[in-house]
Design brief:
The structure is a single chain. By secondary structure, the protein is an alpha+beta fold. It is built from 4 helices and 5 strands, in the order H-H-E-H-E-E-E-E-H. Helix 1 (3-20) runs antiparallel to helix 2 and helix 2 (25-35) runs antiparallel to helix 3. The longest helix has 18 residues, at 3-20. The protein is globular and about 45 Å long. The mean pLDDT is 93.
């Protein structure tokens, strides 16, 4: 694939992260509709019963309800061929129910790495590794 495809994929990925950082569920949902395949394969734990782009929208709805000030800082982005890899630092304040835990007001900072595969100009597949253990320790859900 030409370098221009990798560059275009990085730009699309960046657009998605810009939407995420608005903290606005409507903007995120609209951007998902624009840049993600409706039947995207999402290789990460998601709310039951949802698949594809709907699962992705549900993940963001859950996260924003729990952490309304959620911010994803992209630390590294690597694009090659039809894939883009991002290493992120996520921060937020626990102000809503999350995984059965009522709001604690605690701040969290955790890391995640995502690999996304593009088909044409849209995200077709996503693999994610999120440091949920660190997140849960910071929220006091498990002993530090």
């Amino acid at each position: 694939m030409p370098a221009t495809q990798a560059t275009a994929n990085k730009a699309t990925f960046s657009r998605f992260h810009d939407a995420v950082n608005t903290g606005d569920a409507e903007v995120i949902s609209k951007t998902i509709d624009e840049v993600v395949e409706p039947d995207v394969l999402f290789h990460a734990p998601v709310p039951t019963g949802a698949t594809g782009a709907q699962a992705l929208k549900q993940v963001w709805a859950v996260l924003l309800r729990a952490f309304p000030d959620l911010h994803v800082a992209v630390e590294d982005v690597i694009a090659e061929g039809d894939k883009v890899v991002a290493r992120n630092t996520v921060t937020g304040t626990h102000q809503g129910e999350y995984r059965g835990l009522p709001p604690t007001g605690k701040s969290v900072t955790y890391n995640e790495i995502f690999v996304v595969r593009f088909a044409g100009s849209r995200i077709a597949e996503i693999w994610g590794v999120v440091d949920v253990l660190s997140q849960m320790k910071q929220l006091g859900m498990i002993p530090a």
